[in-house]
Amino acid sequence: MRKLIVSSEKCIGCRACSLACPEDYIKIEEAESEISVEFPPGCDMQCTKCVDICPTHALTLTNDTPEKKSVKLWFEMAECEACGRFFAPKMMLKYIIRRLEDTGLADEKIAWLMLCPTCRHSISH
Ligand code: SF4
Ligand code: SF4
Question: What is the DSSP letter of 65?
Answer without folding.
Answer: P
